[in-house]
Amino acid sequence: MAATARLPIAMPKRTDLESILIVGSGPIVIGQACEFDYSGTQACRVLRREGYRVILVNSNPATIMTDPEFSDATYVEPLVPEIVEKIIEKERPDAILPTVGGQTGINLTLALDEAGILERYGVELLGADIGALRLGEDRLLFKQAMEEVGLEVPASGYASTESEAREIASRIGFPLIIRPSFTLGGEGGGTVYNRDELDDMVETALDASPNRSVLLEQSVLGWKEFELEVIRDRLDNSIVICSVENVDAMGVHTGDSITVAPQQTLSDREYQEMRNDAFTVIRRVGVATGGSNIQFAVNPATGQRVVIEMNPRVSRSSALASKATGFPIAKIAALLAVDYTLDEIPNDITGETYAAFEPSLDYTVVKIPRWAFEKFPQTAPVLGTSMKSVGEVMAIGTTFREALMKGLASLELDGSIATREQKMSDPVRLRRRLATPNWERLFAVFAALRQGWTVEEVAATSHIDPWFLREIRSLVELETELACWDLASLPGEHLREAKACGLSDTRIASLVQANEEQVKNRTAELGLYRTFKRVDTCAAEFPALTPYMYSTFGAEDESDVDERPKVMILGSGPNRIGQGIEFDYCCVHAAYGLAEAGFETIMVNCNPETVSTDYDTSDRLYFEPLTLEHVLAVFEKERPQGVIVQLGGQTPLKLAHGLAEAGVPIWGTPPEAIDLAEDRKRFGALLAEEGIRQPENGTAVSVEEGVQVAREIGFPVLVRPSYVLGGRAMAICYEASTLEKYVREAAEVSPGQPILLDRFLDDAIEVDLDLLADGETAVVAGILQHIEEAGIHSGDSAAVLPPQLVSDEALDQMRSIAKRLALRLGVVGLMNVQFAIHQGEIYVIEVNPRASRTVPFIAKAVGVPLVKLAAKVMAGHSLGDLGFSSEPAVPGVFVKAPVFPFRRFTGVDPVLGPEMKSTGEVMGSSPYFGNAFAKSWVAAGHKLPLEGAAFVSVHDSDKEALLPVASKLADVGFELVATAGTAEFLTRQGLKVRRINKVHEGRPHVVDHLINRDIDLVVNTPLGRESHEDDASIRQTALKYDIPCITTLSGALAAVEGIAAWKAKGLAVASLQELHRMG
C-alpha cells in the first residue's frame, strides 16, 4: 500500500516523568489469559515510542511483552511484593502503570501500597489512584458508591465469616450469588440455592479472597447481561468503545458466555440510558484516565437495570472490544495515563479522525469460549459464576447468523458440529441440557429447535433472549430446506442464502449428499465468492488505511491487494490446554522476522486475545476461521509466495495436506517430513537405519489390535492418538482393562488415524532439545531437562536449562542424534526432539519438526530470536548467512514451572500424568538451581514454606527414593509427619517422624490435620495411573486449603533445594538485558 499521511501526535504531556514501571499479569490462567500480553505489549511499545524509559516486570516467558526489545529493562520475575520491591529499589521508576496487568497487576499494586513501598520510593500511580482501584475491586465500597449516585445494584451484604454470611442470607433470601473480593474470573464464587450449599461455598470463597471477604448478592439469574467498554481522559471526555451482549443470561460468567457486539436487543433509548449510567460509574469510581469494563443486568420482563460490577482496568473484554472495533484500547489507555486527551490521539485505522470519535460497527462480532472439560473428567461440565473456559474465538460477519456459524467453525472441536448436536439431542435429557448452563448448550438449542420446540419454550427453559433463538431457528429452517435437495437440483438462491448465513461447504455438502469440492464448484458456477471487508471503527464513514479484514458474501471487496512479495502465516486459533500463547508468540515473531526480510506479512487467525491479531503486528490481518475453506479463500485473494504452517501448533498443521493438494506453496519443513515423524512404522524404520534407539512400539486401528500390540511390547504402555497436542487422550496403561478404555478415547479424539502405543520407560529422565535447521545445517538452540520423571507430560513438568543431572557425554549424543534426524528429515525451520535416558541408554521418544512450546522459553533465556531466524530460513536464508552457527551460551540457570487450573474444577485430583493439564508457565532465573527453582515455584502461585510440618506419603516402591527428600526437609528445619508405613521406614533410617492416622484409621486423621492447617507442605505420590481414594482426598484437601502439594519425588527434591537456597541466599533480581550482556 502507498504511504498515507496520518494525523500528528504531540510530544508527551508528562515531561516530569522519565521512567515507568509496567506490571504484567503473570502466567496464563483461567480468567486471565493472553489478552494481557496484548495489552502489556501495546503499553510498552507506545510509552517507549513517547520517550519514556520502560521497566517491565512479568513472570511469563511465553509472552511478546517480555521480549527485551519492548522494554528498557525486562524482569521475568515473580509478581510478589518482596520481589517487585527489589526491582523498584534497583530501577527507581517515577511511576507505575498497573492497569494493563489484569487482576494480578491490581492486587500487586494494592499490596505494594499497603506495605508502604510505593510511598517509600516515591512511585506515582498512573491511570487510577489507590482509591479508585479499591472502589472498583471492593464490592461493598462499590455498592455504596453506586447507591450514592442513584444507580441500582442488587441487594447484597458483605461477610468475613460463615456466621455473617448466614445472617445476610436470611435477610436477602435464596438463591444467592457468592462473589469473593479481589479474585479473577469469579474464582471461588458461585450460586447457592440453600443453607447447606451456602456454608460450603462461603468457606471456599473466603479462602479464595486475598482479604477473606465475600459479597452475598441477590440473585438476578435469568436476567440479560450487558457490558460496556468505556474509556476516559483527564478532561473527563468519555466514550463507549463497544457494547457487548451476553447470549447466556446472568448466572454464567461473562468469560464463559457466548457474547455479541454490538448489543442486539436493547432499544436505542435503553442503550443510551445504559451508556449514561456507564459514564456515571466511571466518574464516581474515579478512574482518572484509561479504560474500564462495566457490567449491567436487565430484567427482561420489566426492563429494570442494575449495575453488577466494574473493572477499573484493561480487562478480558477489553481485548474483545479492541479487536471487534479496531480501537487499540490498551495503547490509548497508556497514552491517556501520561496526560494525553482523546482529542489529541490520532485513530490509526482511519488516519483522519481522533480517538475521541466513538467507534461504530456495520457488522456483527460473536465470541465463543473454548473449554477443556475433557481434561478434567471428574468434574461436572456445567457453567456458573466461576469462569472455566481456557480460551475463545471471535468471528466477524455481516449478520449474527454468519458470525455465529463462523465462530463455531473456528472452535476446532472433536468431531463435527452435527455430531455435537446429535450428542445433545436425546429428547429425555434435552430439557435439562437447556435449563442447566453447560458448554454444549448451544448445540442443545439447535437440537430443540430442530425437534420442533418453539422459540418461547426454549427461551423459558434456557433464559436465552428470543431474538437470538429466532436467528438460530432461521438457520435450522434453512438447513432443513437444504436437506430436501441434492446438489444438482438445489436452487441457486438457497445456496446463496446458505453461504451468506455462514454455512461451511462441509456442512452444506453433508446436507445435499455431495462433497466439499462439488459444493465449492457449484458456488463458483453461481458467481458466489468470498469478499473481504475492512474493520474501520467508523461504519465506513471514513476509509480504513489499515488492512484488517474479515470475509463475507457480497458485491464489494475492500481487500485492495498489492503486488509486493508476501508470506501468509497461519495462527494457532483459540487458546487451549496444549496449544497456548507459546504458538502465538512464534507466529508474531515470524511476522516480525519476515518483515525485516522485506516481505509483506499476512496473518490469519481467529483468537481475539492475542498479539498476532493486533492490526499492526503484520501488514495484513485476516480475522478468519482456520479451516481449509477460509484459508484457501484468503490465499486465492492474496496469492502469497508461501504459507507457513509449522508455527501455530497442530491447528495449521492439520491443514497442510489440503493446502498442498490445492497447489499452495508450503514454506519450511515439507508436510511429508512432518507426516513421516508422526508415522510410527516409517519413522521407526528411519531410526533403525540410523542406529537410534526408541521404545518398543506399535500402532493400532482398533481396540483388539491395540491390546494385541500392548501384549507384544509388554505393559506398561503409553497410549496416544495421532496429530494431537497437549497429550490429549494420552495415558499410561498397566493392564488390558484400562488399555481398552483409553484406546477407545484415543480413537474418538483422532478419528481415522492410527493409535500409537509405546513401551513406557519407568524412572527415565526426559530431555527436550530444540534446534534450527536450514536443510543442510542444524544448530542446537537449547536443551531442557525435565525435573519430573518420565510419565508426566512435558508441558506439565518443571524443566531446567541447562540440564543439571545429565552428563556431557549424554548431551553430546543427543545433540548428534537430533542434528542427524533434522538433516535426514529435511527440516527447514524449527524442530523439537524429546529424549529419555533409561538405565544409561538414550531413547528418542518423539520428534516434532515444527515449533514447540519450549521455544519462547529458550529464546528468552539465551537472548536469541529463534523464531525470527527460523522464519528467515524458511524464506531462503541459510543459518550461516544469519550468523547462527553454534549453540548459544546459557547465562545462568533458568527453570520453567507450569501453572494449573485445578482449583477451578471441583472434585479434581491434582495429580499429574501424561495428559497435559497446565494452562501456562513461568520462569525463574538465577546463577544457582535452587534459587531459580524457588523463584519459579513462587511465580507459579505456590506458597514456599521455609519451615513448619511436612507431610510425606509415598507408595512402597518410592520409599527408598523418598529418603533424600525427607533428609533434606529435616536438614532445613521441617518437622516430618507421615502415616504408619512411611513413618516406620523413615524412623528406621534415623529420622524423627511424627506419626498420624490415615483416613480410615480413625480421627483425627491426615485430612483433619490439613484442614486445621497443622501441615505446611505435602509430598504425596500416587500408585499407578488411578490413585487410591486416601491419597486423592489428601491432595484435594491440600488444594482446597492452598497447602503446597507435590506429587512427584523429583519435584519434591527440587522444591527442598529451592527452600534451602532461599533460606541461605535470599532472592536477587536481574533483567534479561543484564543477563544477556553477561552471557
Account of the protein in words:
The protein has 1079 residues and is of the alpha/beta class. Helix content is 37%, strand content 19%. It is built from 38 helices and 39 strands. The chain has a seven-stranded antiparallel β-sheet, sandwiched between helices. Strands 17-18-21-20-19-22-23 form a seven-stranded mixed β-sheet, with helices on both faces. A hairpin with a 3-residue loop joins strand 28 and strand 29 (778-786). The protein is globular.
What's the short story on this structure?
Helix content is 37%, strand content 19%. The protein is α/β, with parallel strands linked by helices.
Features:
1079 residues, alpha/beta, 39 strands, 19% strand
SSE diagram, text form:
Blueprint: E1 19-23, H1 35-49, E2 53-57, E3 73-75, H2 81-91, E4 95-97, H3 102-114, H4 117-121, E5 124-125, H5 130-137, H6 139-148, E6 156-159, H7 162-172, E7 176-180, E8 190-192, H8 195-208, E9 214-218, E10 224-232, E11 238-246, E12 259-261, H9 268-285, E13 290-298, E14 305-311, H10 316-325, H11 329-337, E15 364-370, E16 391-397, H12 400-410, H13 417-424, H14 427-435, H15 441-450, H16 455-462, H17 466-482, H18 492-500, H19 505-511, H20 516-525, E17 530-534, E18 548-553, E19 566-570, H21 581-596, E20 600-605, E21 620-623, H22 628-638, E22 642-644, H23 650-653, H24 656-661, E23 666-667, H25 671-678, H26 680-690, E24 697-700, H27 703-713, E25 717-720, E26 731-733, H28 736-749, E27 755-759, E28 765-774, E29 778-786, E30 799-801, H29 808-825, E31 828-838, E32 841-848, H30 855-862, H31 866-874, E33 893-899, E34 920-926, H32 929-939, E35 948-953, H33 959-971, E36 974-978, H34 980-988, E37 993-995, H35 1006-1011, E38 1017-1020, H36 1029-1040, E39 1045-1046, H37 1049-1065, H38 1072-1078
Parallel strand pairs: 1-2, 1-4, 2-3, 4-5, 18-21, 19-20, 19-22, 20-21, 22-23, 35-36, 35-38, 36-37, 38-39
Antiparallel strand pairs: 6-9, 7-8, 7-9, 10-11, 10-13, 11-12, 12-15, 13-14, 15-16, 17-18, 24-27, 25-26, 25-27, 28-29, 28-31, 29-30, 30-33, 31-32, 33-34
